[in-house]
């Protein structure tokens, strides 16, 4: 039985060239991650606290950040056939360091799973009026968990079904919005109904809203055939999914005067449209759970040297995340986005510097790429990367200069590069390297 059929999906190995997928197939999955109800929620949050043009520029700035991050590390993953967690082992963090990063990303994704699952459950509860939120959260969480257990192929099938339904619903909602309101007034003069958002906070919400998705781009792009495919897929998905859907959510919030997405969709499209939009959470939530399972699998392997099957990890994470949604994590949506917007970007900055600039383990990766094996050794941990990540996160959180998401991303990359170069000069080493292990 192949690793893919066993539900492992190459969690601890390279994706072989003979199972790589066409660009459009991965694009559909990725577009499904962005063109989803959480983007409408984000757009509604922006429209509730900003004018249309303020929200436009916040979305544009945030989208540029996401595109740059997604392509940079996604292209490396397509070249190497490695998930985010495995790529980080040979791109800055080492085995133990990658376990920390994998664990943090998994925790973030479990939070997103709880948010999305709560939206799904709330929509079904309001539509049916039976049971309660907790019961529906348990049911919907179990459904998504079962889907993800079967891996990439079922993720693709889910996106093929839900994405067209969602896009058609949003087109219809846009048409209804245009016909029922003065679109010129909404764009040019309409004022937000809620507390005013600053540009920095709004841009961080946009970047933070999908920064985890950008960082886990390798989990999907490792199935692509090369960097060109990654560039095409990330450009289309980021700007179509992020810009278009967000701005439609902004207009809806300005028109309906609320940030409650269920109320917005009900007022514009009725229960059928609202149901389809809510149902679309399946296609983003299965990716959340899928990538979380890859991160946890890597973490367990790195810490305990146990080759945990990805499907088994999925069951454990799915059940735990479902409990989070039953406890009402949806109430912390906006603050959760802001926190992600400053703590996760430094990870991508460090991976970028190590893989593309310092190239510390590139020769090892290149030497084993043709045979589609992993290098025979890796660093145990790179303390410079860990320190750079912590400092960059603190800078993004507490130094209010510019856009926090950009600040933390650049800080992570710059600090890691400078300290690495200083370490090399002080130690007079030919190569920046720490203690290695052959137990990969």
UniProtKB/TrEMBL annotation:
Classification via InterPro entries: CodB (IPR030191), Pur-cyt_permease (IPR001248)
Main localization of the protein described in the UniProt heading:
membrane
Where is coiled-coil annotated?
A: none
Intracellular or extracellular location(s): Membrane
Instruction: Determine if Transferase is one of this entry's keywords.
Output: no
This protein's GO CC annotations: plasma membrane
TM helices/strands, residue ranges:
27-48, 55-76, 96-115, 135-152, 158-175, 196-218, 230-254, 261-281, 311-330, 336-358, 379-399, 405-426
Similarity section: Belongs to the purine-cytosine permease (2.A.39) family.
* Record protein name field: Cytosine permease
State the organism of origin.
Clostridium ljungdahlii (strain ATCC 55383 / DSM 13528 / PETC)
Q: What is the lineage of its organism?
A: Bacteria, Bacillati, Bacillota, Clostridia, Eubacteriales
Q: What gene makes this protein?
A: codB
